[in-house]
Records
---
Amino acid sequence: MNINWYPGHMKKTKELLHENLKLVNIVIEVIDARIPISSKNPDFDILFKDKKRLIVLNKYDLADPVANKNWEEYYKSKGWTVVLYNSTNNKELRKLEMAIAEASREIIERYKKRGLLNKTIKAMIVGIPNVGKSTLINSIAKKKSAKTGNMPGVTKGKQWIRLSGNIDLLDTPGILWPKFDNEESALNLAFTGAIKDEVLVLEEIGLKFIEKMQHLGKEKAIIEKYGVENNDKALNIMENIALKRNLLYNKTEIDYLRVSSLILNDFRSGKLGKITLEKS
Ligand SMILES: Nc1nc2c(ncn2[C@@H]2O[C@H](COP(=O)(O)OP(=O)(O)O)[C@@H](O)[C@H]2O)c(=O)[nH]1
Ligand SMILES: [Mg+2]
């Protein structure tokens, strides 16, 4: 699979990321709990090596509860603060604030020793497309008042959102690019919608998704959702779904595009159940 990622805009996006990184002590990396490896790029460990890290396993409401626990432990064992989060539920905001406070503790201690009691901690949100950065920032901004930064060293016009515990969050996220080092990661990104459908052959992605579910031993989620007969061949399952749902051309031919869209949209919106595509 050959995917052209971010044609053209990447240079400017990278420059902005580097500029904003200089302003913050903490990097809040949002990843997709359904694909906790593919929605991360190991290159960023170098990019963020001087920063405190908070890993937000976002969309955990769509992911498998047991896998969520395992992934939380996995990233904690790397020494990072980790939080399972649902950006669409602002009742969870307190949980996020507490995680940010935990990640800030060391820096606050250091400030205290130097007599800097009221110094604010500055944080920014980063992540690849579609992990929920904007949803997260908007939900925070709605609850908190945004203020224009006029602090020394802060570029004029940048907006900061004040969180509890003297923490200022930059209101624009840093956009990262995923690593396409193997087809499996690229497919995982396609399944979750992190790659725009327009650049994909959706019929192929739908088929690969059924194969992936078979590989994970989770094909039952598909079989039961659409009430079709199971089959070792993913293509047969797909065709059975199309027949069942009447997704046909001229009343006879399978409409592979529509049946693929149906399955992928149902997965993306959680209608196939809580599914994690990667094992820790
Ligand atoms: N179920 C669920 N959906 C989410 C969550 N966070 C974001 N989304 C959805 O994921 C999609 C992409 O979110 P967006 O904030 O635009 O991602 P961004 O590209 O990282 O800014 C949107 O449809 C959001 O509603 C979450 O925690 N749970
Ligand atoms: Mg966004």
---
Amino acid sequence: MCPRRRVESGRNRAMSPILEVDGLMKSFVKKRNVFGLPAERTHAVKDVSFTLEKGRTRAIVGESGAGKSTVGRMVLRLAVPDEGSIRLFGDSILEMSAAQARKLRRRATMIFQDPFNSLDPRMLIGESVAEPLVLHTSLDRGGRERKVAELLERVGLRKDQIEKYPHEFSGGQLQRIAIARALATEPELIVCDEPVAALDVSIQAQVLNLLQDLQSERQISYVFISHDLALVKMFAHDVTVMRRGEIVESGPTEQIFDDPRETYTKELLSAMPVMNPRRRASRSKTVVTPSS
Ligand SMILES: Nc1ncnc2c1ncn2[C@@H]1O[C@H](COP(=O)(O)OP(=O)(O)O)[C@@H](O)[C@H]1O
Ligand SMILES: [Mg+2]
């Protein structure tokens, strides 16, 4: 541990970030020449930096192709940056051994947009939720059964739904199950990649409310990837706006929405339907507000 962090770990510990991302770069090969060598590259992420504190939510917003998912994947070491550093819980994840990175899976995990794809269709719900417990804990069968029942109950499902298959559930229920699975190892960070984008608007608020309650209860930190500014406004404490791989601007949610500095952010906001005051009144009943 470097001296600076040791000093921070004293009185200000609660405020020191659990995630520090600095100067991330990532490109992909877009086209290869006749020899199979890279001919053209996509610069998916260019010099992206941000921090996230314990129990807080940082939204990453931007249009499709902005590089949001690539950033989320790199944070969990599911993709390796070409340059830059990522410190998670104080440790540099890029310098970790594979064994250390596996341990990290327990503390940091991901929820995806499409719960139909993130759950194995041939596995019973109970098995899917128990899987991380098998991989990352020493709980025996009885312990796993109790934990799975408790998790499903917490996300609003019934115990007897353990012995059903994914196709027997609605999209909203499946996302709750995916959340139960993500919670199994008691993570401190969850990267949520468009977690409600595939759901009906009426169900979106319920799932976001659940995520927010879990955050208050367990001090979970979220990286919340979304293209939906109305949801971001209600859900996030801080916002990072990305465009074509780069950060356009970053700041507390209030500042980004009430006093955006950059033209691109202003354009994004002006395209947001909820900014119309007549609609805002009806929307605000169904959406959540960030707990600070
Ligand atoms: N595995 C990959 N291989 C090649 N190109 C990729 C890969 N992942 C992402 N990209 C490209 O990187 C850019 C950013 O993608 P992504 O991070 O998925 O953006 P977003 O999540 O904001 O829609 C896009 O141009 C995309 O096509
Ligand atoms: Mg994406």
---
Amino acid sequence: MEHQTAAGLADLAGTWAVPAGGEALFTWEYDRPAERLLRLYTKGKQRQWDADERLDWSHEVDPSDPLGMPDELIWIADSELWDRLPEKERAHVRVHTAGWTYSQFLHGEQGALVCAARVVQMVPDINAKFFASTQVMDEARHVEGFSRYLREKIGVGYGVTSSLQGLLEAIVRDSRWDFTYLGMQVLIEGLALASFGIQRDMMTDPLAKAFNAYVLQDEARHVAFGQHALSEYYREITDAERSEREEFALEACHVLHDRFAGEELWSNLDYGTRECIEITRESASLRVFRYRLFSRIVPALKSIHLFGPKMQEGLGRLGLLRFAKGDLHDIMAADERAAREIELAQRKREIDTAIEAGGTGGGGAG
Ligand SMILES: [Fe+2]
Ligand SMILES: [Fe+2]
């Protein structure tokens, strides 16, 4: 496969074909109300938002720091190498780190779009098909938003990193609907929650913060959906089936734990690829990411009953068992509150601006 780096988003080209197994499943059982799923579906319908309207794209980002990235989130910031770099080079690192990161978000969102569409086809329950179809629309809006941000505000794009590509491939290739759920709704969505949470809470650019808060609110629904479906299904499976799923999830945890060090970024920037990767692996920024990631994923695995001896042993080896006590519902409720707060603050600003301008029309974005 080929990675194109350090170009604008417009320079990324081509397609990637993954053979996808499985069956498209019709159901004739239309009348099986499932209250929790339907509640999520209703939320999914009602909380659609349009990035064109909801966000203030006229906001000008700092071209040398398009996300407002604090130094502690730059992977190589805690190093002699960074101390030696002149400010111009540091700006270059900030822009490219933003470009690499948002590019991975973009490719991951497309993965989510493809997987959600597969869930619509494969899942047996009609209510789950309903919800998954709102997720398809959510993910399309996320792809749209990240590609616009990359194009208009960052200007640098990267190809998909091999670890993310490998995960996506493993998920899409499998023909069983619950593997699509497990891979996408639990593991990749967990990755999304952690990554967008960091963007929302730690970046200082207001557009980047707001955009990620809205995306995060959608992702929280997607995770809740996956958990709901899988916790029922996995209660009933055999030990052999459970063990196979635990292996799949552990393998993904391994990749997520060890294999996101911005390889393409560093080989492109040319400050010494190997040294930069080493520094990245030990960086405080990556520790923050891992903490956020596994404090979401581990309780999720536990709540869907993938927490047998094999899983516990595997998580123990990665040093992740301490996260098993966390409460995912608290975290997700906090994500939702944060998005609401940003939304309310933004509406208030809009109203204030309208009043200042002496406008008499009320209203506002829906
Ligand atoms: Fe998404
Ligand atoms: Fe999602």
---
Amino acid sequence: MAVVTQAEILSVIEHTAEIREYILKPDKYRRFEAGMFLQLSLEEVDSSDYWPESRTFSLASYYNKEKVIRLVIKKAGRYTTRIFNEVEKGSEVTIKYAYGDFILPVFDQKNDIICLAGGTGITPFFSFVEALEEQNELERLKLLYSAKKYEDFIRLDYLKEKLNDDQLLLFTTQEENKETINRRITKEDVINAASNYQEAHYYICGTTEFNLDFKEKLEAENLKKIYLDQWE
Ligand SMILES: Cc1cc2nc3c(=O)[nH]c(=O)nc-3n(C[C@H](O)[C@H](O)[C@H](O)COP(=O)(O)OP(=O)(O)OC[C@H]3O[C@@H](n4cnc5c(N)ncnc54)[C@H](O)[C@@H]3O)c2cc1C
């Protein structure tokens, strides 16, 4: 059952001119799975009101004792421009959560979790890192993260702190950079990241083109455990 609640904005971090991180403190905090999403509205409503215009955002944090939620939002069109203009520290927004089936494997605590992130598609994987760390299973996670330029990587210090060099592969597609692999992610990169690629779980979050391209390539290898987070 989804919860509708007001949430206070505790902080806003500007990563780039187009990408901001928001920390929210909901009045009603409830359990959710890593990888799920919420609906955010700028209107103040409660559960008995007609649900107003809103947008969907991945929960970029896992259930935590501080009872806060992290969102990473890219300014893309009309509503996210309103969010950038109107939401600041101390603002109140309404959220409805949690939804989605882009969640970690329920019955498998052993095989690799291979995550493919394109740009802001990194957001659900922050909650995967937190959840797997809490379950002492973080070594199962491999993250292949692609961005146009190095400066577009979000919370890279955090990812480097949590993941070792074998677990975090960074790709830049529009910039030569010593720190990264300077090309797009290939199917071979994905398969080589897994210790047993036939049994691994593949989670993909990026543009529709990014998602469908990898889905097709991995399905051609007869891989079955492929999960997409479709934003469009
Ligand atoms: C499950 C799920 C999870 C998501 N998680 C996130 C997340 O964590 N972070 C995040 O930032 N987004 C996320 N999204 C996307 C988000 O919900 C919005 O769809 C997105 O932010 C666009 O909303 P908007 O109102 O700004 O754009 P809208 O005005 O609704 O426009 C929709 C699209 O049209 C394009 N568009 C709009 N105006 C123009 C224009 N003038 N010229 C060309 N193109 C235009 C924009 O690129 C935009 O993508 C998620 C979506 C889903 C379904």
